[in-house]
Design a protein that fits this description.
The complex is a heterodimer. Chain A is α/β, with parallel strands linked by helices. Chain A is built from 17 helices and eight strands. The two termini of chain A are about 40 Å apart. Chain B has a four-stranded mixed β-sheet with strand order 2-1-3-4, covered by helices on one side. Helices cover about 50% and strands about 10% of the residues of chain B. Chain B starts with a helix and ends with a helix. In chain B, a hairpin with a 2-residue loop joins strand 3 and strand 4. Chain B is α+β, with helices and mostly antiparallel strands. Classes of the chains: A alpha/beta, B alpha+beta. Chains A and B meet through strand 3, strand 5, strand 8 and helix 14 of A and helix 2, helix 4 and helix 5 of B. Bound molecules: flavin mononucleotide, iron/sulfur cluster (SF4) and FE2/S2 (inorganic) cluster. FE2/S2 (inorganic) cluster binds next to helix 5 of chain B.
Chain lengths: ~425, ~160
């Protein structure tokens, strides 16, 4: 197995590393904050992050430096940086590890991003369920503040920053950036119509940047080792490493940090130990439950954003769910549709009704009550759900379901024909 | 209504963290649920009063988020993940075992007041599926046997 240098998981994989401030300092932590704050102009920090090629790890893969560049400098309003720690995409469990095991790496990333966009008050929106993660971050925030890494004039640089932890309360949609903002304002987490984009009018109608935990964790390394070092890892358009969360029917589930040039085959077979119990591979979801499914024919696809898109799926959240031969794809569809139905915020008719239909029809087919026309009905519903709604949750429900039908249509037909699940014992 | 002095202090600290009062709503609801186990109509009204909101606005928010209990729950709130990775690794067997052992349905509380059974969506712990959250803690790599052992332990502790 080729060895790769880990960037984000490196500290925490050192024997005995507990993620406290002294331990983080001992491995060179906060060096970037020391070297950048008050010394490198914010515009130059944005420039370096642009040059690194870093793209968001929360779902869409949008270039981070470019996003920061959209924040107006002269609005006269405060600017906000929100760390998206709502991690709720099924199959994804990397941000939780980054928070629990190396909280100062994240705080350092937040400080650097906040400095770059001129923000003095930042919020970490952490998923409500992550009680342990919240306690780890609370302790780390306290440590950082006592040592002068937060508060007034950070390390004497003249730059002030407060970071506040804000707990969500169990709603997948609050991971969507405008819903997250609504939620932070004390409302139901319902996505806002764009434009205006958060960069111009976000939290409290002020310029706001929302960045994922993993995205932010990359910043100290980019600013210490240089954008060119970072840009040399990965592929032409997908730079750096990425943490892939591997779960399902796999021998060694877990988080794997690998260069974005890795293939699905290497990730699954070399790193995660292949399908569990020696079974054959049936299907893989490469980027969280929102991403269309791939099959063994796709094993040589690159895990970078472009290659996955070319293969008809997407990089999404990096949550890789493995399914062995014998998995019922109608049941998979039912579980996925049930999830999106439950999590739709209900504002858009196409999404609210569409997710309900998908779930209802898939459950009926799975239980043996499917009709021949149901398969086309499903595709028709999916078709009506894409590209027409306030946020992309509707697409995130429709595209995977359509993909299950595309690759496994015979299985859906067999359910209808035999009036039962052919795979049920 | 007043909260005890330490809780009042926390409430004041929360308010100081936000430029706009309303942002304190989720933190307040977390605080109340931690203290009382659930959100009663009276406390929601109190939260509304303090944040200058209409009580129905507080109720709307409280019902939007799955973490909040609008009625009392058992001492151990068992939230079993029903999402894909957990399903692939036997979540339904876990839920089945719990129903059988506790003789309650989903959303119900056992007559002894010890357990409430709920289904939840992905807990961001898919690599150690199947998983359930019990109050603030995660229990991972569950099997019917490990679930039965947990129940025995909690029942013994309650005696
Ligand atoms: C329905 C939905 C759920 C999302 N959930 C998350 C999430 O849990 N965590 C996250 O970082 N981004 C999530 N996103 C993406 C965010 O909207 C946003 O793009 C991201 O946080 C931006 O950060 P990045 O540029 O660093 O990737 C979600 C998007 C949608 C549409
Ligand atoms: S697409 Fe769905 S989740 Fe998104 S805003 Fe519309 S109803 Fe809400
Ligand atoms: S699917 Fe159960 S924790 Fe993610």
């Amino acid at each position: 197995m080729p060895t790769h240098e880990k960037i984000l998981l490196k500290n925490m994989e050192r024997p005995g590393y507990g993620g406290t401030l002294p331990e983080y300092l001992a491995v060179g932590g906060y060096e970037a904050v020391r070297n950048v704050l008050g010394k490198v102009p914010p515009a130059e920090v944005i420039e370096r992050v642009k040059r690194s090629g870093l793209r968001g790890r929360g779902g869409a893969g949008f270039p981070t430096g470019l996003k920061w560049g959209f924040v107006p400098k002269d609005s006269g309003l405060p600017r906000y940086l929100l760390c998206n720690a709502d991690e709720s995409e099924p199959g994804t469990f990397k941000d939780r590890q980054l928070i629990e095991r190396d909280p100062h790496q994240l705080l350092e990333g937040i400080i650097l991003a906040a400095y770059a966009i001129g923000c003095h008050r930042s919020y970490v929106y952490i998923r409500g369920e992550l009680v342990y993660g919240a306690s780890v971050l609370t302790r780390a925030l306290h440590e950082a503040a006592t040592q002068g890494f937060l508060g007034q004039s950070v390390l004497g640089s003249g730059y002030d920053l407060t970071i506040t932890l804000h707990r969500g309360a169990g709603a997948y949609i609050c991971g969507e950036e405008t819903a997250l903002i609504e939620s932070l304002e004390g409302k139901k987490g319902m996505p806002r119509i764009r434009p205006p984009f958060p960069a111009v009018r976000g939290l409290y109608q002020s310029p706001t940047v929302v960045n994922n935990v993993e995205t932010l964790c990359n910043l100290p390394h980019i600013l210490t080792r240089g954008p060119e070092w970072y840009a040399a890892i990965g592929t032409e358009k997908s730079k750096g490493t990425r943490i892939f969360s591997v779960s399902g029917h796999v021998s060694r589930p877990g988080n794997y940090e690998l260069p974005l040039s890795v293939t699905l085959r290497e990730l699954l077979l070399e790193h995660a130990g292949g399908v569990s119990d020696g079974r054959a591979l049936k299907a893989v979801i490469p980027g969280g439950a929102s991403s269309p499914v791939l099959t063994p024919q796709h094993l040589d696809v690159g895990m970078d954003f472009e290659s996955l898109a070319a293969a008809g799926s997407m990089g999404g959240s990096g949550g890789v769910i493995v399914m062995a031969e014998g998995t019922c794809m109608v049941q998979v569809g039912e579980v996925v549709a049930r999830f999106f139905h439950h999590e739709s915020c209900g504002q858009c008719t196409q999404c609210r009704e569409g997710t309900a239909w998908l779930h209802k029809v898939l459950a009926r087919i799975e239980r043996g009550g499917g009709r021949r026309e149901d398969l086309d009905l499903l595709l028709d519903v999916c078709d009506n759900m894409t590209g027409k709604t306030i946020c992309v949750l509707s697409d995130a429900a429709a595209l995977p379901i359509a993909s299950y039908l595309r690759y496994f249509r015979d299985e859906f037909e067999a359910h209808v024909r035999e009036r039962r699940c052919p795979l049920a014992a | 209504m007043t909260f005890d002095p330490q809780v009042e202090q926390e409430a004041a600290a929360i308010l100081a963290r936000y430029p706009e009062k309303r942002s304190a709503l989720l933190p307040f609801l977390h605080l109340v649920q931690r203290e009382q186990g659930y959100l009663s109509p009276a406390t929601m009204e109190e939260v509304a009063r303090r944040l200058h909101l209409h009580p129905v606005e507080v109720l709307e928010v409280a019902t939007f988020y799955s973490w909040f209990n609008l009625k009392p729950v058992g001492k151990h709130r068992l939230q079993v993940c029903q999402n894909l990775s957990c399903t692939l690794r036997g979540a339904e067997r876990i839920i089945g075992t719990l129903k059988e052992e506790l003789r309650i349905g989903e959303g119900e509380t056992s007559p002894d007041g010890l357990f409430t059974l709920q289904r939840v969506e992905c807990l961001a712990s898919c690599g150690s599926a199947p998983v359930m959250q019990v109050n603030d803690e995660y229990h991972e790599n569950l099997s019917p046997e490990s679930v039965r052992a947990l129940l025995t332990r909690w029942r013994a502790a309650a005696r």
